[in-house]
Amino acid sequence: MSSADGVVAPAWTGLGRGPEGLGRLFLGLGLIGFGVENVLFGSYVVARATPWPADPAYAFLFACVTAALFVAAGLAVLTGRWVRELGLEAAFLIAAYSLALHWPKTIAGPPFSGDWTNAFKAIAFAVGPLLAALATPQPVNRLLAGLRAIAPHACAPFFLLAGIQHILFVGFVETLVPPFIPGARFWTYTTTLGYMMEAAAPRKIPIYVLDRPNPITGTAVEGPMLDEKYLSMIGYFPRPVRHGMTIGELANFFNSEKKIGADVRVVKMQGWDRHMWMDQTGLEWITPSPNLRNLTAATLYPGTCLVENSMVSVGRGTDSPFMMFGAPWIKDLNLADYLNARKIPGVRFIARRFTPNEVPYKGQEVSGVDVQLLNRDELDSPRMGLELQAALLKFHPDKFSLDRKIMLLMGSDKAAALLKQGKTGSEVNDSLKDELDAFRKVRAKYLLY
Predict the structure, then answer these.
(1) What is the mean pLDDT of residues 248-273?
(2) Phi, psi angle pair for 388, to nearest 5°
(3) How confident is the model at residue 64 (pLDDT cuts 50, 70, 90)?
(4) Within 13 Å, how many C-alpha atoms sit on residue 39's CB side?
(5) Structure confidence at residue 69 (pLDDT)
(6) pLDDT tens digit string along 90-136?
(7) Which of 43, 176, 227, 272 makes the best surface tag, with the fewest CB within 10 Å?
(8) Which of 4, 275, 254, 364 is nearest to 148 (CA)?
């Protein structure tokens, strides 16, 4: 392999040191991760790429080919071999996928949907392998030489346009930091807070937390505790599904219990009471997520979300997300009758059909169950979620399973083992009493209101 000036370049020069080496490492692993994801979640990937034919054979071929290309590009970046060729291929593939998927949705969608952020992120990510390709010492033609000159500045338009969008769509930007933080453990704002604290602690940077109400009250402590093996972006630190804390209280809890050592300064709310629901605060409801549109959905969310995986829709892409669930294979009448017979306080269930416009089952009519909230003060939503899981395992053991995604949400091997033994959701919920009592004792030290 020779460089443009005729000097022989080694086939493998290592990842490099410092930021360059870390950049290549993360880019290479990221590309490989994309490839693996395309194989593991092929049906999801193809369903998102709406221009692609719906035939299962073509869908599988599409997923495998794109997976192989991403993995090859990642290996090239890591090993230093064929970087230019495969880097250009990966950049083209990401850009083409963005043009086929993100930009049509961005142009056709509502201005506050947030689709534009995905489109720009995809293009920005495409710049990564492009830079890796153009930074190689291999001979380049005149066109690539021109690209090499402008490539270091390729991310600038992304930041410029993102800044303009923040000015034009102030309403959308406001949703990025809403006046409340949803009260379920798997809401990612709290994870982001934890990561910020970890980054700030060694640098002695203070973290100011402007506290927010817990919209589903600050009293309920319900649901399985998160096992450490299931820590992830949707589960930062062990706590129950419904923890009954504000984000300011969680900041102090994380800082002390995880021994982060950050300089956390919580600015307390005035006039908030732990027993308040969001509609009792006098504050406006600003949607914190496109699919969490009202307080009823936020109340049911810690339960209905526990059945969301690649085989079950929870109503994303309908007018009532998280207030229903379904799949083409669900026996809706039998399931609704069974769940009503369980006499879950605060809710009832009605069989229904719906057609989501998001995956899974995008554009397909599915049979399912509508969850009607009767009394929010009586509802233990995570217990309801355990009942939903138990019912699906009972009626559809060949279709529904406690897969990796559901385990990251539920987070408890103990609860999963009991469900697989045929226990009801109530029986599983009763088994959680001791660990919830232990959490309440720790939690009490950090309550500010």
Answers:
(1) 97
(2) -65, -45
(3) confident
(4) 11
(5) 77
(6) 677 777 766 666 666 666 655 545 555 666 666 666 666 666 566 55
(7) 176
(8) 4
Provide the residue type at 23 as one letter.
G
Q: How would residue 24 be classed by pLDDT, with cut points 50, 70 and 90? A: confident
In sequence order, the β-bridge partners of residue 352 are 368
- Contact between 322 and 304 under an 8 Å Cβ cutoff? The reply is yes
Mean pLDDT of the 399-407 span: 94
Q: Which domains does the chain have, with CATH numbers?
A: 18-175 (no CATH), 188-285 (3.40.50.12170), 295-439 (3.90.1150.140)
Write a three-state SS string for the chain.
CECCCCCECCCCCCCCCHHHHHHHHHHHHHHHHHHHHHHHCHHHHHHHCCCCCCCHHHHHHHHHHHHHHHHHHHHHHHHCCCHHHHHHHHHHHHHHHHHHHHHHHHHHCCCCCCHHHHHHHHHHHHHHHHHHHHCCCCCCCHHHHHHHHHHHHCCHHHHHHHHHHHHHCHHHHHHHCCCCCCCECCCHHHHHHHHHHHHHHHHCCCEEEECCCCCECCCCCEEEECCHHHCECCECCCCEEECCCCHHHHHHHHHHHCCCCCCEEEECCCCCCCCCEHHHCCCCCCCCECCECCHHHHHHHHHHHHHCECCEECCCCCCCCCCEEEECCCCHHHHHHHHHHCCCCCEEEEEEEECCCCCCCCCCCEEEEEEEECCCCCCCHHHHHHHHHHHHHHHCCCCCCCCHHHHHHHCCHHHHHHHHCCCCHHHHHHCCHHHHHHHHHHHHHHCCC
Asked whether the beta carbons of 425 and 386 are under 8 A apart, the reply is yes
Q: Is the model more confident about 35 or about 272?
A: 272
The C-alpha atoms of residue 235 and residue 302 are separated, in whole angstroms, by: 13
Question: Would you say residue 203 has pLDDT above 80?
Answer: yes
